[in-house]
Write a structure and sequence with these properties.
It is built from ten helices and nine strands. By secondary structure, it is α+β, with helices and mostly antiparallel strands. Among the domains are: about 100 residues, Putative Large Serine Recombinase, Chain B, Domain 2 (Hect, E3 ligase catalytic domain fold, Alpha-Beta Complex); about 35 residues, no CATH class. Helix 2 packs across helix 3 and helix 7 packs antiparallel against helix 8.
């Protein structure tokens, strides 16, 4: 029976511990899920169902394994181990474990919904939410970026409401700069076009051969064309926001239908990217 002698997320190279990135991502996932309300058992069951390998052929997880990972200070750089999670994330996870026997306070429905949209403005990684000792909320990047913002729920809602109302007052904010021509021929297509021109100039070429060359060229040419989603969606979004009155509270349906990402910026403010790639701060 093989036993793991080094913490999950690391490997030994030349006698020194080094981050094993594939496993480290699972460690960050465990901390993120736990901070955001999942139980030890839910996380363990999820990893087991995904058949995530723990060691060699072992892919069965339990809540004790998850608990040991959450409590292991090596993940924040102790004992000469490379850091996998920040001290803030580690503290948040263990504060939850010790408080009220691990029972989590109820998360408001709107917060639960927008968590799926909140990302780091620096690296694009998921932003985790934790409850501070003073009962205020804090959002921080689970990828160990330095971005963290002491935003409570009320402030997040206020910023989002302000961005929506800005867009309602001025739907022109949704316009994105044109991306130019979306057709870019390959060198092979350019060569094929020249061959067709040369064939047309010949007097003894068969019509069937020329038509086949042209049809093949046309088909391949339009394979190079890409649909510009931003142009297609912009008019739809502008019409939608022009038909709205200013909001007094956030609308889950409107968020779901119009927003792609909510970025938490280094200055503590939010920036919304709409589904047509327009960004409003």
């Amino acid at each position: 029976m093989r036993l793991r002698t080094i913490p999950y997320g690391y490997e030994i190279v030349n006698g020194k511990p080094r981050i094993k990135e594939e496993e480290a991502n699972i460690v960050r996932y465990i901390f993120s899920k736990y901070i955001n309300g999942s139980s030890l058992k839910e996380i363990a069951d999820n990893l087991t169902n995904q058949r995530i390998t723990y060691f060699y052929d072992k892919n069965s997880w339990n809540k004790n394994m998850i608990s040991r990972i959450l409590e292991n200070e090596k993940y924040i750089g102790k004992e000469q181990y490379p850091c996998i999670v920040s001290s803030d994330i580690f503290e948040s996870a263990n504060l939850r474990k010790t408080k009220m026997g691990g029972i989590v306070s109820e998360v408001p429905q709107m917060v639960e919904f927008i968590k799926g949209f909140m990302v780091c403005g620096q690296c694009g990684g998921h932003m985790g939410r934790q409850i501070m000792k003073n009962r205020h909320e804090k959002w921080l990047c689970v990828n160990n970026c330095k971005i963290s913002s002491k935003l409570d729920d009320e402030k997040v809602f206020s910023y989002l409401l302000n961005i929506f109302n800005q867009t309602i007052r001025n739907p022109e904010l949704l316009k994105t700069q044109g991306r130019g021509v979306n057709y870019s021929p390959t060198t092979d297509l350019v060569r094929q076009a020249k061959e067709i021109d040369m064939a047309i100039e010949q007097t003894d070429v068969e019509f069937g051969v020329i038509s086949k060359m042209i049809l093949d060229y046309t088909s391949r040419k339009y394979e190079c064309c890409q649909l510009d989603k931003s142009r297609e969606m912009t008019d739809i979004l502008i019409d939608k926001f022009r038909g709205l009155s200013e909001l007094k509270e956030l609308d889950i349906t409107l968020i779901r239908e119009t927003i792609q990402k909510i970025y938490v910026c280094a200055n503590g403010f939010l920036s919304v990217r709409y589904i047509n790639d327009a960004e409003v701060k």
